[in-house]
Amino acid sequence: MATEHILSLLIAERDKLNKAIEALGGTTTPVSRPSKVAEAPAVLAAPPSVKKRRPLTPAQKKAHSERMKAFWAARRKKKA
Q1: 15: domain range?
Q2: Which of the two residues, 65 and 50, has the higher pLDDT score?
Q3: Does any domain span residue 16?
Q4: Which are the contacts of 65, defined by CB distance < 8 A and separation ≥ 6?
């Protein structure tokens, strides 16, 4: 019987706190689980612009490959 009384007092206190939080303009949802209303402005925001890379031409690929081969050969030579 005593635990039921304590439980009812705690629930009443929780309800009072929730009402006070709502009156101050806050939300009663837990921090770990945001409400869908809170997520709505993020959806409406414009996505960050992403620069797209142009594909390399075969000549550019070959030149890059040769530069990288020379680079790694120099690194191996320096290490040895």
Answers
A1: 1-31
A2: 65
A3: yes
A4: none
Q: What tens digit of pLDDT does each residue of 9-57 get?
A: 999 999 998 888 888 876 655 556 655 555 555 555 666 788 888 899 9
* 46 falls within a domain: no
Per the structure, how many domains does the chain have? 1
Please state, in angstroms and as integers, the Cα–Cα distance from residue 68 to each residue in 27, 36, 57, following that order. 56, 49, 16
- Alpha-carbon torsion 32, 35, 38, 44, what sign? positive
| Cα–Cα distance for residue pair 38/71, rounded to 1 Å | 51
The answer to whether position 77 is within a domain reads no
Spatial neighbors of 72 by CB under 8 A, at least 6 apart, are none
pLDDT value, residue 26: 63
pLDDT the model gives residue 68: 97
Q: Which amino acid is at 5?
A: H
